[in-house]
Amino acid sequence: MSPVLLVQGLRKSFGRVEVLKGIDLAVAEHEVVCLIGASGSGKSTMLRCINLVEPIDAGRILVRGEEITARGVDRNRVRRGIGIVFQAFNLFPHMTVLANVTLGPRKALGLPRAAAEAEATELLRRFGLADKRDEYPDRLSGGQQQRVAIVRALAMKPGLMLLDEVTSALDPELVAEVLEVIRELASAGMTMVIATHEMAFARDIADRVCFLDAGVILEEGPPDQIFSAPREQRTQQFLQRILAAGRL
Amino acid sequence: MILVLALAIAVVRSLPGPVFFPLRMLAIAYADFFRGVPTILVIYILGFGAPALGLSGVPTSTIFWGIVSLVLVYSAYVSEVYRAGIDSVHPSQEAAARSLGLSRGQALRHVILPQAVRRVMPPLLNDFIGLQKDSALVALLGTVEAFRQSQINVAATFNYTPYVATALLFVALTIPLARLTDWLVARDRRRQQAGRTTG
């Protein structure tokens, strides 16, 4: 069976700066892959390329065997099948939680309002947000907003979720509730690529960890191996710095 | 009508990509031209010029051409207000909408424009007050509106009270509009931010 996500020789430059210098990655069904690495190592850019937010310079990306970076591919259709959650939540401030969650299913999938709202309400209940249904995003805590953003992505029933440092903008005491949601997704079998700075979380949840450094995946392997016995010197240095900062 | 035309111009100006370059240039030229030419000149040229061409099928009513002039001029102003509103919505909002699989048009309609229009409500009202006042300029074409009527009265009686009455009339029209906008903006803020928590 072809992998859910296959990235081959992905390159991306912004102006003269080459951010991604040939990324190869395969993600199998139900697999959770965590991307770790210093800021600027290309984790976010990689996720944005996979979601076709950023045009790529070279290489190709396949989702379930279909080359989504080929010419003439309907990007809107591809994006409907890939959920992405951003660091800054990016909820729509002029809409209630319910409207935020149902916008995609109603407008992009063409679901009738009643069906979309029923599904959204069920999802919100599942993630403990049922009572926030009619609130506006500004009235929610950061953790709640990020959980709504995750629910909004899930409402599209994506076959692949991309999480881009989803806890980086949160106060420390709000991180746990968001990580709990992601844990539940993983245990429900969701295929995910997660860029994160939460090493303990990555170690706990990932089937595989990829260490990005200077635009390439320098080292990858099961979390125990990466965190306990990294082979590459750069990985060791990175983890030591994290350790020194008390984040592992 | 101004709202619709101005919105169309603003949207055209925000279209990305080289494909839309000619359309974009057209919109920019329109906004530059009609903001540059004094309103009174546009009214003169269209109000006296267009009927004088004697083309068949072209209306000769001065009210018609007065209204056309005001629509053309104010659409240019209002389009710039809209554009400022569209530009003020953070690009991450469009990214979020597009990531859900919405098309560019859907993102614009459901996510960008509702936020943009809310933000430009006060300056939009400002332009509408201006528009109401400039409707007095149409009097130059001989159309009898409030200002012209008061001129006639003043000329007949040498009493300037009609001018004051007309001024009060204009104020009476614009104040409710101003309060309505204040109320709309306040309601919006209340709805979105009351009971706001940190973080």
Please outline the helices and strands.
The complex is a heterodimer of chains A (248) and B (199).
Chain A: E1 5-14, E2 17-27, E3 32-36, H1 43-50, E4 58-63, E5 66-67, H2 75-80, E6 82-85, H3 97-108, H4 113-126, H5 142-154, E7 160-164, H6 172-187, E8 192-195, H7 199-205, E9 208-213, E10 216-221, H8 223-228, H9 233-244
Parallel strand pairs in A: 3-8, 3-9, 6-7, 7-8
Antiparallel strand pairs in A: 1-2, 1-4, 4-5, 9-10
Helix pairs in contact in A: 3-4, 3-5, 5-6
Chain B: H1 2-13, H2 21-36, H3 39-52, H4 62-88, H5 91-99, H6 104-119, H7 121-134, H8 146-157, H9 161-193
Describe the structure.
The complex is a heterodimer of chains A (248) and B (199). With 248 residues, chain A is an alpha/beta fold. Chain A has nine helices and ten strands. In chain A, the strands form two sheets. Chain A has a six-stranded mixed beta sheet, with helices on both faces. In chain A, strands 2-1-4-5 form a four-stranded antiparallel beta sheet, covered by helices on one side. Chain A is globular, with a radius of gyration of 18 Å. The two termini of chain A are 36 Å apart. In chain B, α1 crosses α4 and α8 (146-157) runs antiparallel to α9 (161-193). Chain B is flat, with a radius of gyration of 21 Å. With 199 residues, chain B is mostly helical. Chains A and B meet through α2, β6, α3 and α5 of A and α5, α6 and α9 of B.
Enumerate how many helices of chain B there are, as a single number.
Answer: 9
Instruction: List SSEs of chain A in N-to-C order.
Output: EEEHEEHEHHHEHEHEEHH
Helical fraction of chain B equals over 70%
Count interface residues per chain for the largest interface. Answer: A-B, 35 and 26 residues
Structural class of chain A: alpha/beta
Short structural summary:
The complex is a heterodimer of chains A (248) and B (199). Chain A is an alpha/beta fold and 248 residues long.
